[in-house]
Each structure stands twice: as structure tokens, then as C-alpha cells.
Design a protein that fits this description.
five-stranded parallel β-sheet; alpha/beta; about 50% helix; about 10% strand
Length: about 290
Amino acid sequence: MMFKTGAWRRWLVGRKLQRCIESPVFVVGAGRSGTTALCEMLDRHSNILMARGEGPIVHRFGLLAYEHQFSKKAGYYQHNTALVGETFRKSISSLCLDCVWGPRYRVGLLPSQAKIRDLRTSSKKPLKRWGVKAFPDEHSAAGLVWLYPNAKFIYIFRNGIDVVRSMSKFPSFKLMSFEEKCRFWGERVFRYEYLRRHERAICVRFDNFVENSKEVCDRLFEHLALPKETGPATLSSGTIFHPLDGPTQTANPKSVFAQREPAYTSWEAAERNTFKKLCGKAMDLLEYEIPF
């Protein structure tokens, strides 16, 4: 069988993805909370392949599975759906993979060329997990676990003051009002609170990720039942991904963040009051103090 380079790459990576289809890792967190840095770090591990960007439709498949299996109308859905049982599960889980990686795992959202090269040349380090950034609520997570029996979740959260400041610099959030940014972060803290007690989830405090990247990486790989590697921690301790309104840069995040003025320094009194009003309970929940 003859392959062109691109076709060979897609075929090989697609085959490796299919072997670990039931073992995803879903990275969850509010925007500007460190999800991108976490995904990049995970992708550096030789046994994980992380999709670039986000998987905004993934939680919809989780909700579909939840409705079909666990909701009050589950019996109705199952009785009136032509695909039943395991056939339904495999069909929906494969369709979800198609949306993340391309039709039948042809890797539409390509990972780094370095990772492709590793996967193509190394038979000693098989792919054991695939991953994507997703936004599941509690019902969606239950559906995703049913779709993927070995699924794991990593929830990363960050001080709301820093998140709101960072959102004001990032194109995707820049046009939102200050109040909308506060609501966005506060609502997502409560949306994802279930993950702090979920048996399949592990939580990462952004502060700890910056301060002790190796310790956090080791803990995450233990959660994912993967061997410890030094590359991921080296990457996360020496790179700042999309800092404020700047490009990704090679630098020590711990040193750079320590030199920044407190995020609220430039906030007016009205903005500080708005943050307290809209984010106070979320800050308490995550055990962050409001210093004003």
C-alpha cells in the first residue's frame, strides 16, 4: 500500500486515536484560566495527543448521551431511537471524535509537527489518551463518561481578578463590558464546581501550576495513569502562552507574573464594587481573597 506523506500521517494518527477512543482527557476551565497552557503541557507527553483549539460541540454530545441514558425521558428516547445500546454509544462517540479530529479520525485539527513525528517513528510509546478543551456541565460530564468509559477530567481554575484583567486584553473577550466579564467568570465557577468532587476529575489551581509545575505535572499524570516525563514540566515552566495581549513567549511564568502589578490596580471604584457583587461568592468558593 502506497501513501503520500500527508495521507500516511493521517492514517497512522487516526489508527492510534481509534485504539484509545474510550480514554479521553477533557480539559475544563473558564477562558483565560490556563487551559491552553495545560493542553500544551499535556500534549508534550509522549502518550497523549491533544487537539488544538477548543471542542465547543463536545459537551453537546455529552448532553445527548445524558438525555438518552439518564434523564427522566430516557425510556422514551431509547424506545423511539433506532440505534440502541452499544450501537448508539459507539456511533455517538465516533461522531464526537469526527468533530474533533476530522472524519473518522483523519486529524483535521493537526497537533504539533513534533508530536506527529514522534507518533510516526516511535512504536515503544503508544498513544494512550487523546484530549480536547471542553465545557461540560454536570449532566454533560455524566454523558461523556457513558460515551467514553475511561474518560478523565482536568479542571483548572484561577483567581477571578486575574481572569477578568486578562479577558480585557484578549480579542475573544475584549468587546465584553466589565460586568459581562465578571458574570462570565463567576457563572463558570459554579458551572464547573461539580468537578471539584467528581471521581473522574482532578483540580489544578493556576497559582500552583505556575509555582510548582513539576509537582502538578506528576500529579496529573498519576491521575491519568501515565508514566512521569520531564518534558511537560520543562515546557510549562519555561513558556507563557498568550500572555495578556501578547504572543506566546519563552520565559519563566513565575518570574513574569511576580513582576506584574495587582490586576485590580487600574480598576475604578465602580468596577471594584461590580466585581465584589458579581464574583464575591465565586471567589469565596475557590478560597481567593478580594484585597479591596
